[in-house]
Amino acid sequence: MPVTSHYWAQSEKLVDSLLPCSLLLCLLLLFFLFVTLPYVKKKKYNLITMLVLTVIEGIIASSILLYATDYRYLRPYASRVNRSVESRFLNYLDISTLQEKKPHKDMVQETLRLPFYQLVDETTEPLIYLGKSPDYFYFEKNKKIYRRDTLHTKISFSKKVNAVIVDAKSAILTDNSFTSIGFYPKVGPTIFSITIPKNQESLSYFPATKPGEL
After folding, report:
1. Residues 6+ apart with CB under 8 A from 109
2. What is the pLDDT of residue 50?
3. Which segments cross the bilayer (predicted)?
4. Facing residues of 158 across strands?
5. What integer pLDDT is reported at residue 170 of this predicted model?
6. How far apart (Å, rounded) are the C-alpha atoms in residues 71 and 111?
7. What CA–CA distance (Å, rounded) separates 171 from 123?
């Protein structure tokens, strides 16, 4: 089934609201029938009713889960990185305050598992490489000092480049109707890799003040 914003919203309502409500109602009715079983003359009617209720609930639950198969597979990839709300029982929880302002590469790649996002290249401002310390690489941009570690970014040296090359990318929505259910139109930009001229590999740098995060 095509994953549209309508399908996603309907699946959330079915899985997070209708399914729990139907299960709760079925359990309450079954409990009532079971408790009253010793006090009724024709017990078989209660037993038949209990069986029918169980079958009906099984059909409802199976139908909902089948309809929402694609949604349930993709749901783990919808997070505070790419969405401002989180589906809850009969409501949405606002999680916009938890948004990642500077998502790293893994977050962007996880967002791309959602079929309504695509990867685009970003143009970045030129960087000047200053050098490295044991833990960070340091750069200058617009007369300000920034640092970057290699935990989520590939930083390498190459003889093929004469200036710092930054590979920055973003994940953007291919269907803007998803913004109506809280998805961000853009996740990023984030730096995937940085390539530095080989002749600058030996440079060391220790900042006098705390630099910004690149």
Report:
1. none
2. 82
3. 17-40, 47-68
4. 197
5. 95
6. 14
7. 14
